[in-house]
Protein 1
Amino acid sequence: MAKHKLDLHDFFNKGAEIDRALGDALHHCVDRRIPLLEIIPGKGSGQLGKKVIRYLQQPAVKRLYHRIEKDSGNFGRLFVRFKH
């Protein structure tokens, strides 16, 4: 299965860059009809993961994807699934 991967480790504490990277990754998947986006906010304190979830739950963003799944075996990873 095709997927796109976004590793946010390098963006820690850079709010605007995180939002831009997330938006770019979502649109990349939509434009290319990629069914799965893997986002790696990392484990750490969990703040970056919470920021990612807040971003994804914005109404304009939520329209772009089908659902979010947390990786049960790795809480430092999220999957965004698309219905194209």
Note: Helices lie at 15-32, 47-56, 59-62.
Protein 2
Amino acid sequence: MVNLQVETFPGNAGTEIIRRFQLGSQTHDVIENIDQWHGEGYRYFKVKTADGCLYILRFDEARDDWDVTLFKKPPRGIWKSLH
């Protein structure tokens, strides 16, 4: 299991926003908090990182623990077409 540490801050209307997270030895800066929702005992956050990847991070409220439930790389060549 890879260690996941998440840095959050309070957003508008009391919602929590993810600023960055560390997955193993790599730090990922979040450039967009796309969505968040609640499940039974969990909170889910869909974020986009500076490298264009999408993640869904899940916070287990009972264990006070984070994990990654989805990881998606951007389509190949997307950054070349944007710059």
Note: Residues 78-82 form the longest helix (5 residues).
Protein 3
Amino acid sequence: MGSGKTTIGKPLADALHWQFVDLDTFIENRYRMNVSEIFAKYGEAGFREIERRMLQETAQFEEVVISTGGGTACFFDNMEIMKNAGKTVYLKVSVDELARRLDMGKTKRPLLKEISPEDLKTYIAENLEKRENYYRQAGQIIDAENLQTEQDISILIKNILV
């Protein structure tokens, strides 16, 4: 969450002349609810089931870059689904930088809405520690700490395409 998956994914898809799919947006369009509403109606477990089904569906698409939610890789056999479907990339970012990015957009993220700014870094560090083993299974690990300019994004995309 907050690593730059969509920020990198859209221009990467453009560079490849492929379709870009943000998995959360795909889910929202299918269920005609935003992720926060889905969480409220079905809980996190229900959302993760929906997410898995939609990942299985989008993994069948051809010539597509899929941006998943931060937790997608950590549930069920989702990481295996992604690895079998194509190239997987972990955009690695420090806790401090993630906290800075996420603090700006907390209202859009159901898992962060109730977390105080003081507790955000702790929350991120704890979640990153839980998720790191899944993320490290990605075929490629890219340092995504610096995403300030178009040039930063272009450099990351070139590193992914290598």
Note: Residues 107 and 113 are 5 Å apart (CA to CA).
Protein 4
Amino acid sequence: MPAKTRRKQYSIVDRSLQYRVLAIILIYSLVIVLFLAVCLFIPDILAMSNQDLSLEIRAAAADRLLTLHSRVWPAIVAMVCVLGIHSVRIFHRLIGPLYRFRWAFSKIGNGDLSFRVKIRKSDYLHREEEALNQMIEGLSERCERLRQAGLRAQESLSAIEQTPSQISGGQDSDQQLLQEHRQHLADLLEQVQRFQLSDEDRVEEETG
């Protein structure tokens, strides 16, 4: 199991979002590089272009410019590469949980409450993970209570139907009213049973 986790640690889970974040990081890096280039190279370029300065001064500016070119650009390229790789690894700790949350929202939207969200220890958004699991737990408990209440009401109604003469003399209108109540309860249970609360409930429904 640990080996499987390592293989998926930096996989592409949301291609569009991860590439968009990487593009933003690279654009910011290029802006920083452009700003540094302007600050470092423009003064010497202006000095070289100034005909009023002596040849010695312009030669010194040209020498500094060549030195900067040989030293600065390799360092900048290395910095951009390191920043890009590190940003991908860092943002994966955000994008991974977001991908899991999106998966959870889809499951909840389909009426499945039998799962809990689990993200890695190194990921961010652990408080959001806990809040989402609490929400799923609360929904599951409420749906279970509603289902049990519906079952009890249905059983009670069945007992009433077995002894209608003691309640209303067995009149046809009363029988029709009881049938309508049963249909309402059946509709209620049908709606509640759209939520999958646990694997045990699923087995009970299939065997029942």
Note: Confidence is low (pLDDT under 50) at residues 1-8.
